[in-house]
Amino acid sequence: MKTPPSYAITSVDHALRLAAMLQLEGTLTVADAARRLDVARSTAHRLLQMLVYRDFATQDDTRVYHAGPVLQLATHSRSQTSLLRAAALPHLRRLVDVLDESANLTIRTGATARFIASVESSQALRVGSREGMVFPAHRTSAGLLLLAELSSDELAAVYAEPRDESVDLPDLAKLRTELARIRRQGFAVNQGRSERGVVALGVPVRDTDGTAIAGLSVSMPSVRYDKERLVLLVAALHKAAGAVEADLRTR
């Protein structure tokens, strides 16, 4: 996960988080914003009003906030990531309806995995939204799936650049063995590698030429993970990934 800057400015962080919520989810009320940020309603109101002032948000007659002109420009972007996210969201929601566990869509950039879409389970004990978060790729199920698509030379190149000593680096020999197994089985299981007490299972989402462009996963508290359900969970994931791939072919 990304390390916060040494001198983080909380108000800026809150405003940026609200802008991301509006762009990715469409609407927010003051109560929603206050709950999501864990701040007072008055604070959430001031933040949203500043976003309105700078055209990052608009407010309708019912006092609901929407993405403003600045965010709408990005929302209507035809980038691969925005198309991928738009195609995946309905299927993530259906997957959550079926499994009642949180679902995610993740892409890889170098040695990191970024969650670009997340839908939470309705259960009281659940894995929260990971949208916008960045983790070391080898610590996530989707990141492992996407690393498994690389050739031996490509994998070596990903981890060849000099890095700060604090950066989490994998044992490449062990990682190669694990990635070979993931390639054979077509899915990845992450038990507590990215976060203690969380289990995630993922499958690849492929482009028309067969290239894996994202990982689709479900995450759950480890106390609820039952290995006897592995086949059922993987089948549901493959079905959802296939539906995303079908939608992508029509866009």
Query: Count of helical segments?
Result: 9
Radius of gyration: 19 Å
First and last CA, distance: 32 Å
CATH topology of the largest domain: the name is Beta-Lactamase
Approximate shape: globular
Largest sheet composition: 6 strands, antiparallel
Task: Please report the total strand number as a whole number.
Answer: 9
Mean pLDDT over all positions: 88
- What ranges have pLDDT less than 50 throughout 5 or more consecutive residues? none
Keywords: DNA-binding, Transcription, Transcription regulation
GO molecular function, one term: DNA binding
Pfam families: HTH_IclR, IclR_C
Domain IclR-ED: 69-250
Characterize the structure shown.
The protein has 2 domains: 10-75, Arc Repressor Mutant, subunit A (Orthogonal Bundle); 80-249, 2-Layer Sandwich (Beta-Lactamase). Helices cover 45% and strands 20% of the residues. It has 9 helices and 9 strands. It has helices spanning 10-25, 30-37, 41-53, 69-75, 80-99, 141-147, 152-158, 172-185, 230-249; strands at 27-28, 57-59, 65-67, 102-109, 112-119, 134-136, 188-191, 198-206, 212-221. The longest helix is centred in the middle third of the chain and has 20 residues, at 80-99. It starts with 9 loop residues before the first helix and ends with a helix. Residues 9-69 form the HTH iclR-type domain. Pfam families: HTH_IclR (PF09339), IclR_C (PF01614). It comes from Actinospica acidithermotolerans. Keywords: DNA-binding, Transcription, Transcription regulation.
